[in-house]
Every structure is written in C-alpha cells, then in structure tokens.
Amino acid sequence: MPELPEMENYRRLLNQKITGQTITQVQINREKSVNVNPNLFINTVTNQRIVSVNRRGKHLLFHLDNGQVMLLHLMLGGWMYFGTEEDKPNRTIQVRLSFGNHHLYFIGLRLGYLHLYNQQDVDKELSQLGPEPLDPQFTAQAFLKLLGDRKGKIKSKLLDQEFIAGIGNCYSDEICYHAGIKTKRSIEEIEENERNQLYQSMKQVLLDALQHGGYMENPLFKGDNLTGGYNNLCLVYDREGENCKRCGSTIIKEMISSRKTFFCPNCQK
C-alpha cells in the first residue's frame, strides 16, 4: 500500500505534470470508485482546471478551480500512470482523467477511491488524522508528548493514522529497524533515549525514502526513473530470510495484529 513517501512523490510529480491543466474528459469504469453518481462526478469535474495537488497522510487532494476537491486514497494495490493511450499499462483502469492527449489513469482501485467533496466536507473527512511526521513543527518534543504514556506495541501505534499520519506497514518496520527497537515492544517499555532515537529514525527513513521515490515499483510516467527507487534500499521490509546488512543475522517475518512484520532479531532489542 502506498504510504507517505509514495504519495508525496506522486504529489510532487503530478504538480509538475497537471497543475494548471484543464480536465477535458472523465471516464469512470467502476462506479464504486467514486462516491457520487458518475454523471454528477463527470459534469462537476470536466472542464475544470487543476489548481494544485496536495497531500494529507496517505491521501492526495486534487483542488479544482470550482472549489471542489477530488480526494484520492489508493489503498492496497492502487497506483497511477500519466501518459497517452499508446503507452498506458495493460491493466484495468477504474477512472481516467484526460488532459487533451494525455491521461491520468487510476489503476487497482478495488479498495481505493477517488471521491468528490467540497472543501468543508474534505476537511471533515480528514479531521481525525494525526500530525504529519515531516512537518517542521512536529518536533522531537511534540513526538515525546504525543507518545506520552500510551500503551500497546510500537508498530501498531505507528500504523495508527490518528496518532501519526502517513506511516504504514513498510516504513513502520524500517523505522523500528533504524532505531534498533523491536517492532513488538510495548511502548511503556521504551526508554526516553530510545524514544528520541525513534523520532530521529522516523524523520531519516521517511526523507530517505522520499528522496529515492518510495518503494512502489510502477513508474508514474514513461521515463520516470525516480518512482520505486527505494524498493531495493529497504533493509528489513519484505526481506525475510535475507542477511541483515548490519550484523549478518537472518531477517525474520512475524505477524503483529494481522500485519506481516519484518525485523532483525539481533539488531532490534
């Protein structure tokens, strides 16, 4: 599932590609991918200019010049491609936004969605999300205060979007590995110096992943050499049975709260 680095990478690239462009046509092949009558969606969005593409947590917000907002959550298996009919992927397209001869294809939206809201309603939809971990105002002090005397496993808390927005299964594992903290440790057992390290690791891992285009392998457009660059740089996620690059121990996979979890049994205490 795309997480903060993947969606922020999409945001940056899409702002280069479609901001200021007018949507010339809308095609909806799966009605469940939108939240209103397809004809209403099409009539509201067609001939509107993309003012900006923003991100909140794992969501993208496409702001239109009529004040409406298309709210995207790709969920598990969702991705996007921007290009022409000739170079589009040979995959089922749920929604297509056209910008003349170029199109933005939404692929794999079996669980994901592209919903249409006014600004007030989209604010309400996102009101429960926690702070952005890369926000400069989200300091170490703010993180320590947020963590406070909360209970439960640290991985489960990092996955909680009301706690911190944007971190998912991949980066929760990578952050804990970087910090040297086992993913199934209870929050109340983690000392203050470890909490500070967890904060620093969260910033470093997310920034590094963003710099390398996240771990999603599918390019956003033809010639996109950035997207997916972090996939080969993951140190524990999806590395079961491989040797830890720190100590040489074997990476282990376990299930925590029905989520697959990867860690080094030697490096992470």
Nutshell version of this structure?
By secondary structure, this protein is of the alpha+beta class.
C-alpha end-to-end distance: 27 Å
The domain tally reads 2
Mean pLDDT, rounded to whole units? 97
**CATH fold label of the largest domain:** Helicase, Ruva Protein, domain 3
Largest beta sheet, briefly?
A: 4 strands, antiparallel
Give me the count of strands: 10
Supply the number of helical segments: 7
What is the overall silhouette? globular
Order of helices and strands: HEHEEEEEEEHHHHHEE
Secondary-structure arrangement, i.e. CATH architecture of the largest domain: Orthogonal Bundle
> In percent terms, what proportion of residues is strand?
15-25%
Rg is 20 Å
Structural class: alpha+beta
Question: What is the percent of helical residues?
Answer: 25-40%
CATH class of the largest domain: Mainly Alpha
Runs with pLDDT <50, length 5+? none
- Biggest sheet strand line-up: 1-6-7-5
Task: Describe this entry's structure for a reader.
This protein has 269 residues and is an alpha+beta fold. It has 2 domains: 122 residues, MutM-like, N-terminal (N-terminal domain of MutM-like DNA repair proteins, Alpha-Beta Barrel); 124 residues, Helicase, Ruva Protein, domain 3, CATH 1.10.8. The protein is 28% helix and 21% strand. The chain is built from 7 helices and 10 strands. A 4-stranded antiparallel beta sheet has the order 1-6-7-5. Strands 2-3-4-8 form a 4-stranded antiparallel beta sheet. Strands 9-10 form a two-stranded antiparallel ribbon. Strand 2 and strand 3 form a beta hairpin. The chain is globular. The model has no long low-confidence stretch (mean pLDDT 97).
